[in-house]
Structure formats: structure tokens, C-alpha cells
Known about the structure:
With about 240 residues, the chain is mainly α. The protein has a single domain (about 1-235), classed as Glycerol uptake facilitator protein. It has nine helices and no strands. It starts with a helix and ends with a helix. It comes from Lysobacter arenosi.
Amino acid sequence: xxxxxxxxxxxxxxxxxxxxxSAVLAAHFGGDGNPLGIGLLGVSxxxxxxxxxxxxxxxxxxxxxxxxxxxxxxxAAGRFPARDVLPYAVVQVLGxxxxxxxxxRIATGSAQVVIDLNAPGAFASNGYGALSPGGFDMASAMLxxxxxxxxxxxxILGATDGRAPAGFAPIAIGLxxxxxxxxxxxxxxxxxxxxxxxxxxxxxxxGAMSQLWLFWLAPIAGGVLGGLVHxxxxx
Length: 235
């Protein structure tokens, strides 16, 4: 169990460091319009690549969840024991916090990295209303996070099914997370992962922390929904 929990800590650390790190440090590098800045497309791809590489590196040890909503969804689908959900969630959150701290320390090393904690999506945090990158309200944010997390679980469960082509699951899962970010960065700055949201919110100020509840409730609900849907449709 210690090895599995260690793998989940490292994998979640890598997910947040790669995905959120790219958003904080590289999305607007050199200012808006600079061709070196990776923008929305680059950040979306970074999240997908971290899951893809992390799953190949660590999936055979822990299952490669890196996300409490995934652990809960797998439990709902009958593919993960209830006793392991809480320990997984704890180390996932700790891994996300550790990555957020590293990103924050790197960001303070350059005067060119300016983080306005009052701006939407500050420090790659998630939000709705005034803290949504596109100004989307709470209902839109909730619906977006529930539906996209549910679809993420359906992809994960299908790609890792014993009847699916062997060895390709991390590719499908990574591409699914890329697509999810392409859809939802304007809406919530994309969570679908309570650990990722918690780690960044701790360094993003009171606004992000006050809205963090939604980025636990919606992804967990979506994870359960996706797990139950897949459980119902598989033959």
C-alpha cells in the first residue's frame, strides 16, 4: 500500500506541476500575442501529456488515478475498493499541494511573472462568476464540471477494460483530458480534479478558496455518474 500511495502522490504532483505549471509560467510568456506563449491549446496539451506520461510511468503500481474524482468513480463502477478511496484522496491532495508550492516558488524567481490574485484563473485556480475566465455563472460551472468528469470516467473505464486494446489506455486518457481542457478552460479554468483545485487554491487567495467547494462537489458527482453509467452499459 505504501508503494501505491507513493505512486499516487508522485503522479498527482506531476499532473499539477506539468499542467498548472504550464498555465502559470508559460501560457502568457512574454505577454499576450508573444509566439513563445503556449496559450490555451498549450496548457490543454500539457495536462494531457502529464496524465499520459504519468499513467505509463506509474499506472502499473497504483492504477494511475491522480485524482480523487477518478478514485471515487472507479469505486462507483465496482473497479476500486472503498477502503482505498480515502487514502488515495489524501495523498493526491498532498501531491497537488506540493506541486503548487514548487510552482509558487519558481514563479517568485522572476519579476516578469506577475500573478494578480484578484483576476479570474489567478495562479491556475478554478472559479465561477467573477473568477471564471469567461464569466460563466455557478450553474454553468457546475454542469460543465459534472458532465466532463463523467465523460472522463467513461473514457478511463472503457480504455482500461480488459477487452480494450492493450497498452493504449494512457493515450486515450491523456487525449481525453486534453479535450476536456479545450472545452472548459474558458468556463472554470478546468478542474475535473478536486486535488488539483485544492493545491492551487491554497496559493491563490481567499476568492479561490471560497469557491473550492464546487470543485469538490461537481467532479465527485461527475465521477460517480460516469462510473455508474459505464457500469450500466457494459455488457
